[in-house]
Amino acid sequence: MHLLINIDVDDLARAEAFYRDAFGLSPARRFGDDGIEMLGAQAPIYLLRKPAGSIAAGDARRDYDRHWTPLHLDVVVDDLDAALARALAAGARAEGQVREASWGRIARLADPFGHGWCLLQFLGRGYDEIAP
């Protein structure tokens, strides 16, 4: 399987700047005024310009207020504090305090387009700390 990640945004230039500055991604191919391929993660991330109010799925319309979805992405980092500071400076909003668990540390945040993200810093054996 080859995974592609597509993220709807209403402002392509602002999204490119955010994902570059927050997560260190680099723009690659451009698809006119409607999309940018961002590289630097294990899977390419495609930022797709979709206007607020346009049809998303079924009768639902896109909005870029903070929204909940059963799918979110985790970014694994070596230094959670530095990564969180970089994401906040780029325009992310923290959602709660940094939490610690036996496997590592986690910070929840939202990007400027309402999408939820988590930053993870594994400690010790990472998830193997809680796996049987």
Tags for this entry?
132 residues, 17% helix, 2 helices, alpha+beta, five-stranded mixed sheet, 11 strands, globular, single chain, four-stranded mixed sheet
How would you describe what is shown here?
With 132 residues, the chain is an alpha+beta fold. Helix content is 17%, strand content 36%. It has two helices and eleven strands; from the N terminus they run βαββββββαββββ. It has helices at 12-23, 80-90; strands at 5-9, 26-30, 35-39, 45-49, 55-57, 60-61, 73-76, 93-94, 99-101, 104-110, 116-122. The strands form three sheets. Strands 7, 8, 9, 10 and 11 form a five-stranded mixed β-sheet that branches. It starts with a strand and ends in a 10-residue tail after the last strand. The mean pLDDT is 96.
